[in-house]
Amino acid sequence: MTTRAGETFEIARAVSDIDSLLTRPLPEAGPAVREEVPVTEEWALTMDRGLLLAPLWESDSFTGLYDFEWEAASEVGERNLAALVAELDRRWGPHRSVGMRVPINRKIADEAMPLLFRTLCDGDFLGDLSVWGPVDPAGPAAGPTGSRWVAVSVNQCDGDAPMVLTVAVTDRPITELDD
């Protein structure tokens, strides 16, 4: 579970959360640190060298949902992602899609991969990425100095688990991995 469990998805809040992450200092060293709510152990943030990963929304559990109910619940997550991507496209221009198939296969084969993809795979955040960058953390205009890359995705780690809409902010380019 994440700190976003039970919240209604709001684009303005999601964009505000992304803006906050863009202006936050990125860790200069690892290893990964996972921030959780102490009592509930709800995930709030993951930090690693040059990387922040956070939840923006979490659906209800899919336990007991089948066929049309499951599909309808899944579509809510996809609609939330599409609405957020459209808003960020208006802000930063068209996104690029970066698939997670190769990172998933590299994880299974225990092969090396860039930190962002390893962190996503380790957390079971396996949805394809919508990516913008470089973006200037001081504002919406792109620029090479102090630039960051932003990626959003939505997925479930298994069929009964909630869908989680996540954001990654990094100081490294996010590019498709070669097979």
Any overview of this molecule?
The chain has four helices and seven strands, in the order H-E-E-E-H-E-H-H-E-E-E. It has 179 residues and is an alpha+beta fold. It has one domain. Strands 1-2-3-7-6-5-4 form a seven-stranded antiparallel beta sheet, with helices on both faces. Strand 1 (33-36) and strand 2 (43-48) form a beta hairpin. Residues 140-145 have low confidence and may be disordered.
List keywords for this structure.
179 residues; alpha+beta; seven-stranded antiparallel β-sheet; 4 helices; 31% helix; globular
Order of helices and strands: HEEEHEHHEEE
Q: Please bin the fraction of helical residues.
A: 25-40%
**Record field, number of beta strands:** 7
Query: Beta fraction of the residues?
Result: 15-25%
Low-confidence stretches: 140-145
Gyration radius, rounded: 16 Å
Overall pLDDT confidence: 90
Major β-sheet strand ordering: 1-2-3-7-6-5-4
Structural class: alpha+beta
Largest sheet, strands/sense/barrel: 7 strands, antiparallel
Shape: globular
- How many domain modules? 1
> What's the total helix number?
4
What is the terminal separation in angstroms?
Answer: 32 Å
